[in-house]
Amino acid sequence: MTPTLAGHRLPPAEPAPGADRCARARDWAEIQERMLVPLYEAVYERLDVGSGTRLLGLGCGTGLALLLAALRGAAVTGVDGGAPERLALAHERLLPAAPAPRARARAVARIVHGAPRDAAPAAGEAAYTLLTSFEPIGCTVGDREGLRALLAEATPLAEHGAPVVLAAWDPPERCSTSSVLRAVSRLADPEHGRGGWRPARRDDLEEAAQRCGLSPDGSGRVACPFGYADMDSAVRGMLSTGLFDAAIAATDREQVGKELTESLHPHRRADGTVWMPNVFRYLIARAP
């Protein structure tokens, strides 16, 4: 998926001419992002995220995961080097111009467009007590390597022993959406070495953590079904992830949309809704 929460993927191909980036960012925020809420909540509950937490969210996108942590009392910083349209929505969620009474009770929130080093604590501020990278790896070529590069830059910003949370798709047999990703990614241009689908491996997260000097310290699995009101919502939601940008660049949006609709058809139920059961895995590692 993706995700987008674009902080640790290879740079996505440019969307097809005429693509409305603002509309796509809104589709992500209103349709797709909520699919991962069970993952966010499971992690926060396990780590007892609250008023003593200083969280850095890598690849924060439109900021829903940050918002959920902030409502628990955490001080949150989100950083993302991807689409500014997504970060604009994160600003709306976390830094409203005229906050409601409930919003005034939230802890400090900060949104940074750039690399992890741009979100380093200011002089005199404490290091982060929690790092999260919720954009799941295990579906596109190069995502594992991109995550390692992101972690190498981000982990020095955390205090010694702080939990670092990584996420991944479970193997294809547990993720119905894998068949859709695999089918549509065939349209991508393989010569550019990106955009192609790859199956998740069971040790993806451990390998990424260990190569960055992190010590694995627990893991879990969370059911995150992708459910949509109708086929149009499903297509818009899936396109908003950015996972099909390489296919759009190699062909066009219309062709990708047709292929996506065809691939989603087996998951359409009698009432017109689209339902794809998925399982995501998270790893908790410890910063050196």
Written description of the protein model:
- The chain has 288 residues and is an alpha/beta fold.
- The chain has one domain (6-175, 197-228, 275-286): Rossmann fold (3-Layer(aba) Sandwich), CATH 3.40.50.150.
- 35% of the residues lie in helices and 19% in strands.
- It contains eleven helices and nine strands.
- The chain has helices spanning 21-32, 37-46, 64-71, 84-94, 101-104, 143-154, 177-185, 204-211, 231-239, 245-250, 253-264, and strands spanning 54-58, 75-80, 109-113, 130-137, 163-169, 215-223, 226-228, 274-276, 279-286.
- The chain has a seven-stranded mixed beta sheet with strand order 3-2-1-4-5-9-6, sandwiched between helices. The chain has a two-stranded antiparallel ribbon with strand order 7-8.
- α3 links the parallel β1 and β2 (75-80).
- The chain is globular and about 55 Å long.
- The two termini are 29 Å apart.
- 50% of the residues are buried.
- The model is unreliable at 1-19 and 101-105 (pLDDT under 50).
